[in-house]
Amino acid sequence: MDLLKEMSGTSTKPDVSFYGTVVWGLCEQNKLEEAKALVGEMKKCGIEANHIIYTALIDAYFKRGNESEALKLLEQMQDLRIVPTVVTYCALIDGLCKSGLIDKVSYFFKRMSDMGLQPNVLVYTALIDGLCRNNCLEEAEKLFDEMLIKRMAPDRAAYTSLMDGNLKHGKLHEAFSLRDKMVEIGFELDLPIYGSLIWGLCKVGQVQEARNLLSEMIEKGVFPDEAVYLCIINKYHDLGYMTEANELRNEMIKRGLVNGNKDSVESNVRT
DNA sequence: ATAGGGTTAG
Q1: Number of domains in chain A
Q2: Proximity of residue A196 CB to strand B below 7 A
Q3: CA-to-C1' distance for A9 and B5, Å?
Q4: Is residue A5 pLDDT above 90, yes or no?
Q5: Which of A57, A78, A169, A241 has the smallest CB count inside 10 Å?
Q6: How many CA atoms lie within 13 A of A161 on its CB side?
Q7: CA–C1' distance A119–B5 (Å)?
C-alpha cells in the first residue's frame, strides 16, 4: 500500500501485474480487506483484476474460514467474465472440502469439466481427501480409480488421503495394500503415512502392531513425533498395559520429544 | 504473481 502511495506521485502507472503482486503480498500477510479494497481501487483506475488476483483472494478467504466471502468473489469473477483456471477450482474445491461444505463440491467439480477444464492431481486429491473426511469413502475410491484410468499418477498425498480414509473406516486391509503400493512405486514412507497407520491400528486395538510400526519407522530414519507416541501410549493405558505405557513414555521423553516443556506432555497423557 | 499432505482419546 505504501508503495502504491509512493508511486502515485510519480509518472509510473501501476499495471495489472504490479497490482497483482501487491494483492498477493497482502493475502500472504492475511490482510484480506486491504487486498480486496485494492481490487476496487484498481477498477477506479480502469484496470480490471485478472484470474490470478481473484484466485489468490478466493484461496485466502477460504483459508481464513470465510467461505461466504470466497464464494461471493467467485460470483463476482463470473459476473466480470474473468475465466477461472484449474488453480481457481483447486482452491475452491479444497476450500469447500475443508469448510465441510462437501455437498457443494460435486456441483463445482462438474462445472469445471463443463468448462473444459481438466482436473489435475491436486484437484483430485483435494476432493478425495474431502470425501474421505466426510464419510464418502466409496466416492473417493471411485475418483482415485478415475485418476488411474486417465493415466494420471496419483502422488503421495493422493495415496495418503485414500489410505487415511480407509483407516478411518476401519478398512485396515485396504489401507495396508495402499501402503504396499506406495512402497512399490518407490515413495518413501513419511511421518504422515506412519502416523496415519499407527493411529488406525490403535483405533481398532491393534496396539502391538502399532508399536511394531513405530520401531519400523525409527529404523528407517523417520523421526516420530509426539502425537505418534501419545497415540500408542494412550492406547496402552486404555488396555491396561501400564508397564508398556510407561516404557514408551520414557522413550519419548528420552528422545526429547517434549515439544517445549515436560508439563505439556504430562497433561496430554492420560493417567 | 496462483494450488496440497491430516495431530488423529473420548
Answers
A1: 3
A2: yes
A3: 46
A4: no
A5: A78
A6: 29
A7: 18
